[in-house]
Amino acid sequence: VSGLAVDAAEVHGVIDETHRASGRQAEALQRLATSIGGVQSAQGSIGTSVDASRSAMRGARVAVDAVGRDVAAVVETLQRVADAARRITQVAAQTRLVAFNASVEAKRAGESGRGFSVVADAVKDLASQVDATSRRIVGTVGDLDARIGALAQELCGADANGAEGDA
Q1: Contact at 8 Å (CB) between 155 and 67?
Q2: CA–CA gap between residue 90 and residue 83 (Å, rounded)
Q3: Angle at CA 123, nearest 5°, toward 121 and 125?
Q4: Burial letters for 79-109: b for 16+ Cβ neighbours within 10 Å, e otherwise?
């Protein structure tokens, strides 16, 4: 009986130790479950942030595409303005030539062509002013075209970076 009592006491000690170990493991599992809950919550927040970022990227891409179309329209308009300015320059050159010819004819006419000579000189001066103005317009359009080209390159680079980041 005394041996049985010793064995029972040992079993009781083992059961108590197992119970304490189970309690520690239960506490550790509870901490692990709490940590996993925190990780899941963080993953949810990250997922929401990623979704918001993707949505913002799509919106930015739409905006960049719209600006790209607007830039293309501005470039086309600038080309039309430059073409018109070049035509004006050509007309000014032809007008100067006509004014020169009129001036020559007025000189041939002598005293009776003197009034016409004054008009021819005025037309030649106006044609020179128109030529200078149209050349400034062509230069300004060229500057604008260069600036818009740089903007278009930046937009294309931004669009390419956005497409790479979204892939």
Answers
A1: yes
A2: 11
A3: 70
A4: eebbeebeebbeebeebbeebeebbeebeee
What is the per-residue pLDDT for 50?
95
CB-CB contact of 128 with 156 (8 Å): no
CB-count exposure of residue 165 (10 Å: 0-12, 13-18, 19+): exposed
pLDDT at 39 over 70: yes
Distance (Å, whole) CA 69 – CA 63? 10
* d(C-alpha 61, C-alpha 164), whole Å: 12
Instruction: List the one residue out of 150, 109, 102 whose CA is nearest residue 127.
Output: 102
How far is the C-alpha of 93 from the C-alpha of 137, rounded, in Å?
Answer: 16
Sole residue written with tokens 């309690």? 23
Q: How far apart are CA 108 and CA 49, in angstroms?
A: 87
Amino acid found at 150: A
pTM of the predicted model, to two decimals?
0.58
